[in-house]
Amino acid sequence: MSLSEIKSRIAAAEAAAGRPSGSVELIAVSKVQPNDRVAAVLEKGHRVFGENRVQEAAAKWPDFRARFEGVQLHLIGPLQTNKARQAMELVDAIHSVDRPKLAQTIARLAQELGHCPRLFIQVNTGAEEQKAGILPGEADAFVAECRGLDLPIEGLMCIPPVEEEASLHFALLAKIAERNGLAGLSMGMSGDFEKAIAFGATHLRVGSAIFGERSPSA
Ligand SMILES: *Cc1c(COP(=O)(O)O)cnc(C)c1O
Asked: What pTM, to 2 d.p., does this model score?
């Protein structure tokens, strides 16, 4: 699928859901993609990208930022506390705030650095053991804790279990966000972004549909 095809599918899904055109932000997930593919998408004018590892983002994006104006980088993968400072110096948004210790570390660093990226709390909607994220039953308390730390929480993020109907997870995430007064919903990937828009997604994280399959070795 080309970038323009995906953009027109997003526009169609926005219209079908009765949502204003342009209300959904497309984050192009460039993890483990060759630089020439990323550069091609930048050359088409796209500026919002996602990476899931701090180290890879640090290796790749300073150069692209020097070459292309207005890049916005989102960290969408798990964040270790010892990488939090580097992440906060590098990215514009973090989608994986998922535990009190990380929230506390980000709050302390925000004081020190004088700025804080936009933040999303990752919710483990499927309560999967191998997956990061706060459990749905603990989400309200965690949102309150983050607010108590003065963190700029913009919304919630989820990655539905692969073998389950994604809609159920999108609906659950939307419900938790709504009762907590959070406007942002980071949900929807290559296989289900139209469905996510129907359930209120504000940020889509789309990788392989834009860039092609990632190489299996990575
Ligand atoms: C890789 C990744 C995506 C993109 O997945 P695709 O299926 O390639 O669109 C989205 N979100 C997260 C957290 C990811 O790690």
From this structure: 0.96
